[in-house]
């Protein structure tokens, strides 16, 4: 990652914030590297701001992590480095999952008056909740699988309700985490209790369950609004060789069996339906700037899965590949999002 070498005169100062307290810390670091590499520095001074697992903030300066604090001073939002105040014109919080994508860091930035890329506090908090987004999709006529929430239930009560309602196999996942962390399918009662226990322990909120769609295809659609234009890509696809699902290890592990296709081989009517659902969900959820919307395709039936308001941006991520597939490079996308925020565009 390029070292911080001081601010440049006549340039806007942008903090790329990565890392974080949440379970997706490592993925955020990879995404931060991608954003830092891709952003066009013409007119921009870019500061790499790292949040460690304990929640402490640092400015990366070469091989050193210099402690900083996000503050508001003299009516301006920025970073306090020792006695020096660095005003920020914008921030790109490339943070995923809990303590980042879910509105908590966005609330801090709003309180400090620092414009930032992505959803506001309310939009981030609501869209990060898979139970809420399922209900939202269902309410506007977008097909979803039936689901159950663990809210107000013990592990034992939730496991029993899942077995009674769905039978096996059942898919379990934390409602407010991404990157498939803590998610998995259960094929019997013993495995169900194990998956539910693990999801309860790691979850930042509730746990949800739904029937496991064996053989379903995983389609993802990229949403981008920049330069006053809205782009919704044709769906891409993730395929695994062999059994299993697109878990954390398959997404980011060295031995991943996953193949990503930035344009799925599906009939045009399926592609158009997925794009229509994606745009409708982003409008209903108040998404700003950027999102990835995930679906299952089972036979010819489409089911909404989830929204990611700050999708992964690594070399292996599908989101930037899909955007590039419609003729927008990562540099154009990332720089455009930042300049929109500085210029006050929506």
How would you briefly describe this protein structure?
This protein has 346 residues and is an alpha+beta fold.
Descriptive report:
32% of the residues lie in helices and 29% in strands. The protein is an alpha+beta fold. It folds into three domains: 12-116, 3-Layer(aba) Sandwich (Rossmann fold); 126-143 and 214-343, 2-Layer Sandwich (D-amino Acid Aminotransferase, Chain A, domain 1), CATH 3.30.470.20; 148-211, Dna Ligase, domain 1. Strands 13, 14, 15, 16, 17 and 18 form a six-stranded antiparallel beta sheet that branches. Strands 4-3-2-1-8 form a five-stranded mixed beta sheet, with helices on both faces. A four-stranded antiparallel beta sheet has the order 9-12-10-11, covered by helices on one side. Mean pLDDT is 89; it is low at 1-5.
